[in-house]
Design brief:
Blueprint: H1 2-12, E1 35-36, E2 44-45, E3 52-57, H2 58-61, H3 67-71, E4 77-81, E5 89-93, E6 101-105, E7 108-109, E8 130-137, H4 141-144, E9 151-157, E10 165-173, E11 177-188, E12 191-202, E13 220-232, E14 237-251, E15 268-284, E16 289-308, E17 311-334, E18 337-353, E19 362-377, E20 383-394, E21 399-409, E22 416-427, H5 431-435, E23 446-459, E24 464-482, E25 487-508, E26 511-524, E27 541-550, E28 555-564, E29 567-568, E30 576-577, E31 580-590, E32 595-602, E33 621-629
């Protein structure tokens, strides 16, 4: 009997060629743009999903210091930042609010429960050891749940490698800015690991626009560390641990008396982020049934201080925590069908205090549970159809049911890909919106319905690729602050539609040209004086072009242009933000196969512009450094 049971278990746990790592929201190869994980939560060819996904690899990320700068060149995305690097930055996907974007860092949700709307400050996320960013545009509530109305940004740090690899860079430039990053990765027996750290400091620019009288530079420093460890106990069972840590200090400008308008101040904030992940991956049935069990933890703290009488006085202290337990399964009963299913429970906690006005902290918490299922069906060669359903239940709120479906069809082996998507998304009310002194406990979730159609065409033996997508989204029950009652209510609605076009040319192995054009028309549908207005800080048109050429002599040359149209800074559309164009140039020289000198000039023509009214942006800036890889 013992022998027969052992044989049965051996048959169930036959070695799988891949661990269940592709269920952990991370791609095994971070530099392969033809594979995506964010569309469905598992690795799949980009041609097999009807959703719009853009992959940004290390070669593109390394030209920027922060992730918001890299994302600004992505189709359908605009960025607004309150000054220079390190200042508060919001990312708007297809015209949705910045807090309607779900953000993953190494597979872990990092949306801040202590933020008023539960958003993410992209200004604290540096590009240093980031190997890949996937951007899913459009609602995606099935796998990702709450907040994925605009889309999902999936950020991946350096992964373990098959052999040993070390990489790093050091840079100095504009306004006494210095940064250095390093990462090592490798495999030894059953262990795979990756670890890195980085530091950036700068004197910065005045957050209050220097063209309007700002004189005091608002500096920034950021220490970041990342680590991953995987233990392959067998070809069917592996254990994962991941961690990511940020410790940053941002100087910013406030609204001092007696005018209470933006001006130079000595204010600063201390920001910390810790992300932790532990998981077990088990592949059964000869790899046809993959399972992931995981616990994730996110801890975000934001402490603001004012300079008063020569002392640093705390003005606002906050901490948000997320505890999540996740199960995700993938079953392939036949080669043409993949079933994805899962369950989650999440406890979000908020702890805030304004010492000048409060003696006791505000502490709120809420648990949310969810189950979901999704089917990916390939009925015949070239066609992939995906559909799914999700159910969320809030401990102190309503339940939500979300549906989504998409299809991708290629009649010619990937040369032409036709895509179509219908998607729903929702954002559960934040802890602040529900339970604070301004909250309303009975708030309903924001809900969005969206559809898009797209076509992708490859030309000239894949030397040219063009993609065009049309999208249309309606969002209702949006939560807004009601000036009449001084509370948050479900009183807002918005509409967004647009076209995203992208082009990539690789006429030779040495020349790479990319470009994108986005037309995003947003409309306020909320009853009242602002009905029909544009949404604030949502430019209708953006264009970006980038070209890189690698010479036969080890010299690399590149240039890029970003053009952003006019927008408004407020809901009343009375404060205009003029459009702008910024150009960058860059060059590199390989001293050896693994060591490279580089330099770049950002904002070459010293354009003067604002993405948030009265907040400055950097002028012409030059940087030089060295990159190494062994």
């Amino acid at each position: 009997m013992r022998l027969s049971i052992s044989l049965l278990l051996a048959g169930i746990c036959l070695p799988a060629s891949l661990h269940a790592q592709d269920l952990g929201n991370l791609p095994q190869d971070t530099q392969d743009p033809t594979i995506v994980v964010t569309a469905s939560g598992l690795e799949q060819p980009a041609d097999d999903t009807g959703q719009a996904v853009t992959v940004i690899t290390r070669d593109e990320i390394q030209d920027f210091r922060s992730l918001d700068e890299a994302l600004a060149r992505t189709p359908g995305i605009t960025v607004a930042r309150n000054g220079g690097i390190g200042q508060t930055a919001g990312v708007f996907i297809r015209g949705a609010e910045s807090y309607q974007t779900l953000v993953l860092l190494d597979g872990v949700k990092i949306n801040d429960p202590s933020a008023p709307q539960g958003g993410v400050d992209f200004g604290q996320l540096l590009a240093g050891n980031i190997a890949r960013i996937e951007v899913l545009r459009g609602p995606s509530g099935i796998v990702w749940g709450s907040q994925a109305i605009g889309g999902v940004v999936n950020i991946v740090s350096d992964q373990p490698t098959d052999g040993f690899e070390a990489r790093g860079r050091a840079e100095y430039g504009y306004r006494d800015s210095a940064q250095g990053f390093a990462n090592i990765a490798g495999t030894s027996g059953i262990l795979e690991g990756s670890a890195g750290a980085g530091y950036l400091r700068t004197d910065g620019i005045s957050a209050f626009d220097e063209n309007l009288g700002g004189t005091e530079r608002d500096g920034y420093r950021n220490f970041t560390a990342n680590g991953k460890l995987r233990v392959n106990l067998s070809e069917a069972l592996s254990l994962d641990a991941r961690g990511y840590y940020i410790d940053a200090k941002t100087e910013f400008d406030g609204f001092p008396p007696p005018n209470f308008t933006l001006a130079d101040t000595g204010d600063f904030s201390k920001n910390k982020l810790f992300v932790g992940y532990t998981g077990a991956n088990l592949a059964l049935l000869n790899g046809r049934f993959k399972n992931r069990f995981a616990y994730t933890y996110t801890d975000v703290s934001r402490d603001n201080f004012e300079r008063s009488g020569g002392a640093d006085v705390p003005s606002f202290l906050s901490q948000g925590k997320l505890d999540r337990f996740e199960y995700r399964g993938e079953l392939s009963p036949v080669s043409a069908v993949t079933l994805l299913f899962g369950a989650e429970t999440e406890l979000s906690r908020l702890d805030t205090i304004s010492p000048a006005f409060e003696t006791q902290p505000n502490r709120y918490s809420q648990r949310q549970n969810a189950i979901y299922g999704e089917a990916i069906v390939r009925p015949f060669t070239g066609l992939t159809v995906t559909g799914g359903l999700r159910y969320d239940d809030q401990e102190k709120g309503e339940s939500e049911t979300t549906f989504g479906a998409n299809a991708a069809y290629s009649p010619n082996g990937g040369a032409t890909v036709l895509r179509a998507t219908y998607a729903e998304g929702f954002r559960a009310p934040s802890l602040f919106e529900k339970f604070s002194a301004y909250g309303t406990a009975s708030l309903a979730a924001e809900r969005a319905h969206s559809y898009d159609f797209g076509i992708e065409q490859n030309f000239l033996r894949n030397a040219a690729q063009a993609r065009v997508t049309y999208f249309n989204r309606d969002t209702e029950n949006q939560i807004a602050f009601d000036n009449a009652t001084f509370t948050y209510l479900n009183i807002a609605a918005t509409h967004a539609e647009g076209v995203e076009a992208a082009l990539r040319l690789r006429p030779t192995d040495r020349l790479d040209v990319t470009g994108q054009y986005s037309w995003v028309d947003t409309t306020n549908r909320s009853p009242g004086a602002n009905f029909g207005n544009d949404l604030a800080r949502r430019p209708e048109q953006t264009v970006s072009v980038s070209a890189d050429w690698q010479s036969p002599w080890g010299i690399g040359l590149g240039a890029g242009v970003l053009v952003v149209g006019d927008s408004f800074d407020n809901a009343a559309n009375t404060v205009r933000l003029d459009g702008y164009a910024i150009a960058d140039v860059r060059a590199s020289y390989g001293i050896t196969e693994g060591i490279e000198l580089y330099g770049r000039i950002e904002n070459l023509f010293d354009a003067q512009y604002e993405t948030v009214a009265n907040y400055g942006t950097p002028g012409r800036a030059a940087y030089a450094g060295v990159r190494a890889r062994f």
